[in-house]
Inverse folding.
């Protein structure tokens, strides 16, 4: 059996714009939880780009219901959420359950119909897999990060990246 299955995403894309929304619809996904830093914006960047705002409009027009789920403890999620006009969960403590459960409640979402989109294996993907939701990994937008992310989590990601790629290919091959 695979090792590190809990860290292996269901889908991988270069960025949010590359996500195949039709595939998500086929999987009966309705609710989308988004990480913020390095998924929607560069780390700690205050502004959401026009392209990202337009993409969110398209996503919502297609019937998806979205919210943000961030480990940031401050006002960051609120600031970004206001620009996208969607709900948010701050201080989510991914990969632990707390923030996910709050997000399910906020959206009145069934885990089976929910996906998380994020750039980190040890927070977004592990957390999502623990909840049994669909997990979507995107590449980090920029090089800037929280020091803990850079020095601990990314180092861990590099160590297991080959295994994750192999798992992912096997998972896709078995669909
Ligand atoms: Mg992130």
């Amino acid at each position: 059996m695979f090792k590190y299955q809990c860290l292996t995403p269901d889908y991988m894309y270069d960025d949010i714009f590359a996500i195949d929304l039709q595939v998500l619809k086929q999987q009966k996904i309705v609710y989308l939880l988004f990480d913020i830093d390095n998924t929607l914006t560069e780390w700690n960047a205050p502004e959401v780009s026009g392209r990202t705002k337009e993409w969110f409009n398209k996503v919502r027009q297609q019937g998806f219901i979205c919210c943000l789920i961030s480990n940031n403890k401050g006002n960051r999620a609120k600031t970004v959420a206001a620009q996208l006009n969607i709900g948010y969960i701050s201080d989510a403590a991914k990969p632990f359950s707390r923030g996910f459960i709050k997000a399910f409640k906020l959206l009145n979402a069934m885990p089976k119909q929910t996906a998380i989109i994020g750039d980190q294996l040890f927070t977004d993907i592990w957390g999502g897999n623990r909840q049994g939701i669909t997990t979507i990994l995107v590449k980090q937008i920029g090089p800037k990060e929280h020091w803990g992310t850079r020095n601990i989590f990314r180092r861990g990601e590099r160590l297991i990246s080959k295994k994750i790629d192999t798992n992912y290919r096997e998972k896709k091959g078995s669909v």
Q: What stands out?
A: The chain has a mean pLDDT of 95. The chain has one domain: 5-173. The longest helix spans residues 147-173.
